[in-house]
Design goal:
single chain, mainly beta, Substrate Binding Domain Of DNAk, Chain A, domain 1, seven-stranded mixed sheet, 13% helix
């Protein structure tokens, strides 16, 4: 899973959103996105729009929406690590409420292919397994679209 938040906010402060079984969990200043699996890196694309983007599918399988208050910057953290994947990304829209759409693609496929790794008759700590696992990186994809609400 990964967390999208204003960099001035402590992501672990009391009142932070907790996973609730849905794609996203959010409060006013941060959002947690629940990935389908937690052992292989996912691909994340971020788009900032001037206005709300038109709805589309383009092969994306699931969607969630929320509104976040951001102070002109945004950070993204892998919740399993202490450092930021994206730290303090400047937003053209400045300070205010941002509409957020999260789209996903290949979640079920990533889970299926990850489970298939364990059906191989090889050592999970061995090179062959690790190379096969590395080829799964980026299969699970996320698109994050945000825009300044008027």
């Amino acid at each position: 899973m990964f967390r999208v938040h204003d960099p001035s906010v402590d992501p672990d402060a009391p009142g932070s959103p907790a996973l609730n079984g849905s794609l996203i969990s959010a409060n006013r200043e941060q959002m947690i996105v629940a990935c389908a699996q937690e052992h292989v890196n996912v691909q994340l694309t971020i788009e900032e729009w001037e206005d709300a983007p038109p709805p589309f599918s383009d092969g994306y399988e699931d969607e969630a929406k929320c509104v976040l208050y951001l102070r002109g910057r945004m950070s993204i953290n892998d919740t399993g690590r202490s450092d930021s994947a994206v730290g303090g990304l400047r937003l053209a829209g400045g300070v205010g409420d941002y509409g957020v759409h999260v789209y996903t693609r290949n979640r079920a496929e990533a889970l299926r292919r990850y489970a298939a790794l364990f059906e191989m008759d090889v050592d999970p700590l061995g090179d062959e397994f690790q190379q096969a696992k590395k080829r799964l990186e980026g299969v699970e994809q996320y698109l994050l679209q945000l825009w300044r609400e008027s």
